[in-house]
Model the fold of this input.
Amino acid sequence: MVSFNGAAATLWLNRPEKQNAMTFEMWQQLPAVLDKILESEPRVLFVRGTGAHFCAGADIATIGKGLGDAGVPHGYRATNEKAEEALAAYPRPTIAVIEGNCIGGGCQIAVACDLRLATPSARFGITPAKLGITYPANSILRTVALLGPSATKRLLFSAEFVEADEAFRLGLSDYLVEPDELETTLEQLAETIGSRSLLSQLGAKAIVNASSHGEQALRDVIDYWEHAARSSSDLSEGLAAFSERRQPTFEWKPEN
Done:
């Protein structure tokens, strides 16, 4: 389920009766849903859960789809990882808005977003050690990038839950917001992000994402965005607005 409000789009994980646990079909549909959202050109994408929880992880009943003879979820894992990578590669800013449980695949979704905002009810857990499966490698690496190796191992080894304040301390969330301030905070974030240079934001995200892809790939991305900046009017508009003590009006848009 998708909604739009001003500069923001919100992708709702919509199975509240199951704490928004992800089915095989939900993972399967996610890349196409993200492509469709991007066509509307929102400046920021919020990912939220309907009801009291963000996402309780993968629906265990559907993990069996695509299981190999040895119990290795070939088809499921490929579909799951494709969905995660589609979210991580979404070119515009993404923010996971986490209330209640954010467990297993829920953490996978949250960590694939650029930023994470949590309320005090949020509870995080990475729980494959309770199921006898391995957690997706790319999500492990993203978690390491956020928390460091030791804290990541702690979560993976113990499969214990981490409350909102501890998650914020560890760096698993970037904002900790009271429930009665949540909607106002999201509106302010969308307004702030929407007022900034889209070129700067897309370039920054592309460069950060490319930093783990090798030196040449990173160099190519840097060259592309430096050329885009030189070719746009955003810099001159930003400097003029600063000198004139007014808000800039940035007009750059991606070619496709």
